[in-house]
Write a structure and sequence with these properties.
399 residues, alpha/beta, eight-stranded mixed β-sheet, six-stranded parallel β-sheet, 16 strands, globular
């Protein structure tokens, strides 16, 4: 698919500080198409609660006041847009009917702002790609009238408190009214198929440029100075996705192992007893460009997910990041992780983790390292986006 105009809306703004599937997809789209990446609009409660010194919020307020231009050119084919509207915070409303009425008003404000950018870029005809924005973008198909609409499912959003209140009613409807749905796992594809028979699994990509397995990284002293096996996790430390008790029990069961956790902590992690365990080390958030050095310093990488409705079907992109550097990897067994079973040790419980980590430490080999790297290289954003193009072609939705 080439020479198309594509408008992207979603959950993550361009200035997010964490890895973003949607940003990676946007950059891949922009190789052959012109892309408008629309940041999520500011809402009233976020504006009120946020620090007055937060540069991201201040920027959005300036744009809403028309003190700054909201349309930014990122590359020749990729534009970022900050909506110049303030939306009402309505998720607290208990009744779906009242929520829907006010959400329609929010959508109209959002759509009018997007139309300004469409005019500036001369987007007379375009494809709308929606990254799970089930509320703010619920009516955009009707309001913007794209020639093709695609809904992207990359997480079970309804497992979170914020989305499950109204999402149980509205996400199935928005999936149904899109021309096409794409998901990054077989589990989420099956979910989408309940409401839209044009649903496809497009897999997941990995940003291999910052994980160049040939590159030699300077190993961080705070890791390599510790004596004994080094077991590490890199990513956001949140109790909604990670099993704090499991991590603690692994550390207590094997005090000769060093457990490293690299990433920002949520409140549950900050308050957890993990901070009292001598062989658990919290290294904090690190710049993205430094993360490969930490991964490379570990003897074994792990992803101790907690099993819940949010994680059971998600595709943990960090697994590809671990494998791209050839690292022995262990993760909690889920339906999605079955895809990795030839290259990742899958564990069901504490005993499985202990046995698996011991096995990975003892049985690592150059051949296994190369197989892991080769497997990860097949999970590129180019391949994932090409799957979107094939889905569009197969369904003959573009004429």
């Amino acid at each position: 698919m080439k020479a198309q105009n594509i408008v992207i809306v979603g959950q993550q703004p361009w200035d997010t500080e964490i890895g973003s599937n949607c940003k990676n997809i946007a950059m891949e789209f922009a190789k052959w198409n012109t892309v408008l990446y629309v940041n999520s609009p500011l809402d009233r409660i976020t504006k009120w609660r946020s620090s007055k010194s937060d540069p991201k919020i201040l920027k959005r307020i300036k744009i809403i006041k028309h003190q700054e231009n909201g349309l930014k050119k990122i590359t020749d084919n990729l534009y970022e847009y900050y909506p110049d509207v303030l939306l009402e915070s309505i998720n607290w409303i208990p009744m779906d009917t009242i929520f829907d009425f006010l959400n329609c008003i929010n959508n109209k404000r959002f759509a009018e702002s997007i139309k300004t950018a469409l005019q500036l870029l001369s987007f007379d005809s375009f494809i709308l790609f929606n990254d799970s924005d089930m509320f703010r973008s619920y009516y955009l198909i009707e309001l913007l009238k794209p020639k093709l609409s695609i809904y992207y499912s990359r997480d079970n959003m309804l497992a979170t408190d914020y989305f499950k209140k109204h999402g149980k009613k509205f996400e199935p409807k928005i999936i149904a009214k899109n021309n096409l749905c794409v998901a990054n796992s077989a589990y989420l594809m099956k979910y989408c198929l309940q409401y839209n028979d044009k649903s496809f699994n497009i897999g997941q990509g990995c940003d291999l440029e910052i994980l160049n397995a040939v590159q030699s990284y300077k190993l961080p002293n705070e890791v390599i100075d510790k004596i004994g096996p080094k077991i590490g996790y890199v990513g956001v430390l949140t109790s909604t996705r990670l099993d704090i008790e499991l991590i603690q029990n692994i550390a207590l069961a094997r005090p000769d192992w060093n457990i490293f956790l690299v990433g920002p902590e949520d409140e549950d992690f900050k308050k957890s007893r993990l901070h009292d365990v001598q062989n658990v080390y919290f290294l904090g958030a690190k710049p993205i460009k430094e993360l490969p050095a930490y991964i490379d310093a570990f003897n074994v990488c792990f992803n101790p997910q907690i099993l819940n409705a949010l994680t059971i079907g998600n595709y943990p992109r960090k697994i590809d990041e671990y494998l791209a550097l050839g690292k022995p990897t262990i993760a909690t067994k889920t339906e999605t992780m079955e895809t990795f079973k030839q290259h990742v040790y899958l564990a069901d419980d504490l005993n499985g983790y202990i046995i698996g980590i011991e096995s990975l430490i003892k049985n690592n080999s150059e051949q296994a390292i190369e197989h892991r790297k080769s497997f990860a290289k097949s999970h590129t954003w180019e391949n994932s986006v090409n799957s979107i193009y094939r889905a569009i072609d197969d369904t003959k939705l573009l004429t």
